[in-house]
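Input (structure):
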């Protein structure tokens, strides 16, 4: 399997927002563990049932569930040329398991301060028909779409604080882990959506 790319950063850093452009540039399909888990929850599968309690509380889903999910996804034909991981890995055991199955070319670390994160997440809305991500202030949905946008259940200020705490405790140490392996590419994620996208594109 050819090399994969990891999009890394705190919740709401803009990983999903930038993933489409990076996929287009690199030809690698986006693999978002958050999207896969939400699909499992809405389909009412056993995995979705197990994951839901953790997601609603803003906690990480156990590594064994996530690693199983990713291992299955990587068997699909479109993963042969490498993929763009969005929101995975999030713990050192997940990164170790990933290193056993694929080679990682680069880890794009989107760096955004906590205060901006809360504003971004609480204002996020999603179009359930297209999956497009909007923000009430930074990327308002166009007329015609604004009627149908929805807010994620875990996008409350209280849950964001738990997600940020989980990030700092369990996920942030991965930046050092990848830096030591010469794979970490730091990006200032605190500019406009376009500027951040251009910064990533210019470095890829
Ligand atoms: P997941 O869905 O991965 O959530 P997350 O990491 O918390 O990331 P988000 O989707 O919230 O943010 P994002 O970085 O994609 O930001 P976005 O582009 O939408 O995970 C959900 C849950 O699933 C987790 O809490 C956990 O329980 C579980 N889970 C998932 N993966 C797991 C794993 N590997 N291990 C264990 N558990 C796992 O942008 C956010 C908002 O900001 C949008 O409104 C957007 O329009 C706006 N915005 C984006 N960029 C900018 C910008 N530059 N300026 C202004 N606004 C911007």
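Output (sequence):
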């Amino acid at each position: 399997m050819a090399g994969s790319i990891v999009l890394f950063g705190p919740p709401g850093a803009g990983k999903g927002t930038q993933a489409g452009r990076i996929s287009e540039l690199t030809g690698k399909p986006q693999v978002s563990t958050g999207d896969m888990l939400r699909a499992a929850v809405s389909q009412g599968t056993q995995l979705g049932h197990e994951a839901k309690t953790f997601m609603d509380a803003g906690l990480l889903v156990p590594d064994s569930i996530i690693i199983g999910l990713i291992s299955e996804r990587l068997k699909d034909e479109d993963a042969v040329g490498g993929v763009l991981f969005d929101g995975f890995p999030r713990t050192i055991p997940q990164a170790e398991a990933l290193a056993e199955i694929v080679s990682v070319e680069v880890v794009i670390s989107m760096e955004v301060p906590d205060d901006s994160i809360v504003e971004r997440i609480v204002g996020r809305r999603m179009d359930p028909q297209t999956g497009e991500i909007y923000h009430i202030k930074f990327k308002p949905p166009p007329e015609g779409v604004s009627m149908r946008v929805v807010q994620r259940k875990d996008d409350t200020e209280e849950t964001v604080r738990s997600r940020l705490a989980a990030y700092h405790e369990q996920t942030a140490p991965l930046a050092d882990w990848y830096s030591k392996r010469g794979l970490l590419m730091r990006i200032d994620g605190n500019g406009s959506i376009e500027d951040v996208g251009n910064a990533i594109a210019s470095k890829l």
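Notes: The longest helix spans residues 157-171. Residues 11 and 164 are 7 Å apart (CA to CA).
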